[in-house]
Fold these 3 entries.
Entry 1:
Amino acid sequence: MKIAVLDINGKDTGRQAELSKDVFAIEPNNHAVYLDVKQFLANQRQGTHKAKERAEISGSTRKIKKQKGTGTARAGSIKSGVFRGGGRMFGPRPRNYGFKLNKNLKRLARRSALSIKANDKSILVLEDFSFEAPKTKNFLNVLKALEVENKKSLIVLGGTNNNVYLSSRNFKGSEVITASELSTYKIMNANKVILIESALEGIESNLSK
């Protein structure tokens, strides 16, 4: 599967990159994509929610009224959840929402996500580039040249490039990551996935195992 390599001005360089069929052209497994995205979102949850239960609030321990003869329900504590100011019944407790998925399923999910984007023609390959210094304007010019300045975009670098990364931080709709940070959620969340040419080898070697 071949795709044209563009430069930072959005022009065709005349070269083509070979995309592995085993990574970019498989039959997508939608359930694997669902599970991997679900795990990613679950891991973002802090799980620090907490409400005080009846054993944790301040209040008298005396029996608030006699057991019989009042014509109403029995009551032994003002801290009961049925009373105003009482403890929360079955309230939220701190917990970890994360769950495990095996590596093969996660690789399948990422291959499926990339195949979906490739099938939708939502993947671009860009030749390697860098900036002399972090500058937002330079990064914006690249987005404009690729016609993605008003879309959610994911730029995948072959390795760490601080100048490109720092130049991108002011754009909420654009994210710059390295090939090792690639996740199913980030792929599916982007309208356009822009792969830097040097990132292709790392992506294919990681996902072809």
Entry 2:
Amino acid sequence: MFRKLARNSLLAALMLMTVAAAAGQVSVDGARIWNGPDHTRFVVDTEAPVEHKVFALKDPHRLVIDLIDARLDGGLPDPAADDRVVAGLRSGIRAGDDLRLVLDLKQPARAKSFNLEPNGTYGHRLVIDLMPKVEAGRSAPLTAASINRGSGHPSVHGVRPATRDLVIAVDAGHGGEDPGAIGAHGTREKDVTLAISRKLARRVDAHPGLRAVLVRDGDYYIRLRERIEIARKHKADLFVSIHADAFKDRRVRGSSVFTLSAGGATSEAARWLAERENRADLIGGVDLKKRDDILATVLLEMSQNATLELSDVAADKVLAKLRGLGEVHQQRIQKAGFAVLKSPDIPSMLVETAFISNPSEEQRLRDKAYQDRLAQAILDGIVEYFAEYPPPGTRFAKARSAITASARRHRIESGDTLSEIAQSYGVKLGSLRHLNRLDGDRIRAGQVLIIPES
């Protein structure tokens, strides 16, 4: 009897020691794989921050991730068949208490790893970004820019058209590990923005003289600075970032259009929104706050006043078209410090299509017909902007030159007023202002006005 009790006590103690050891380990709840055009992101969900080691092996190519004092409690995903980097994924136990994850690779890859704090959607995460490594004798891997829609443009083949197309960079906000705002019925901002962006890109491509570049054309994350670089690589003439707004008060509704404010936001709502959107870059492992001083200096040195002015003009055109579509949240262009708008050489705007936090607007954002109308309204604003401010060497510039070459002209004399000139030629005052790019009715003697057709 005594031996039996002793044996049972020993077994119970061993079981308690095993449970205690397991309790001290970090639980790995599962993992996810996001496939981008130029990298693959592997995300491990953990109950707490985990110490880890990452190293590569050859023959065959593998990436080994050792999670110190961790155990796997969830499942592991299967890589997509078209994943350019990861071929397979397996796990095992190392040194008794450590969890080893092995990614079988299709080609050599560089890896960058970092831990992320919990947010409103996910808990603690270990993120590993894998980028194809260029080997000697091999061509460079394709990037998000090089495989995008614009790669078939005639200039790629060495034939420069007489009049070039205007390039519109269409940026679908968020993506991949970053879902953006989420509506009451589970609608994710990243899905809505991608759907609207694709519709807008198709309409841009169908319009003579315009060509679209989709910055993001799938469910993957692109760092905010990289979005600007993609637009710049394609020599974009305009950058349009598509988002869906959110606010703590679910009654708030309507569209908004933002341009960059170098000095900060113009309203409390704009400041709140800018902070929320800019925090998305933390998901990419980059804390923008650490770069604010450098960025501010660069912006000042590059003197982007002309770009900001054109951004405001383009944004005002788009807002006017959205106003015709339905309710807008703000009647005027809003300004905020969105990181994605900080290209010093490309006119840029951010369109908040509607409030996904408003139940009725969330339903509209899910509706394909409403998405079509949003895309068309944005395109109409873009076309009107370029018709008025066409860059040289484009079809829009050629069309405007033809109009002005054959148009009537009026030299202003002392005492003339704009309304009297419009009346004498039988044209609308607004049309006269628009054709001559006049903000008001102020004119000067000696100035020559182009008279629109009656």
Entry 3:
Amino acid sequence: MSPLEWILQLVLLGLLGAAIPFALRLERALREIRRDRAAMDGSAQGLNEAARMAEAAMVRLRASAELSGRQVAERTAAAEPLRDDLRYLVERAEALADRLEGLVRNGRPLAAEMPRPAEAPLQSQAERDLIRALAAGLPKAAR
């Protein structure tokens, strides 16, 4: 071998020797990247599982909300006729209360003028209250 070949081989050997620390650093970095990649894959799988569970929960929640909405609509539909009936009964009750109030106002002066029967004493307070109520409620023409 000629001296030039020896020099070139020594230079090549020196360059290879200088490349070994870089190769070791590169190997460590690749090992860390692989480890991080495995952790990231595990995290991605966990994230995918969490996303699937969230989607399933949203579907169940949506179904529950629709069911609740239907139940509320059914109960509202069932309550509307009752509301109308109650409104009608309240209107009738108000009219009857006004009429009764007018009869009571008209009957008060008549009850004060009406003579008290002095015959047989009444047997109970209930009978006295009944006579008084009947006298207050009768119009003049019926007495």
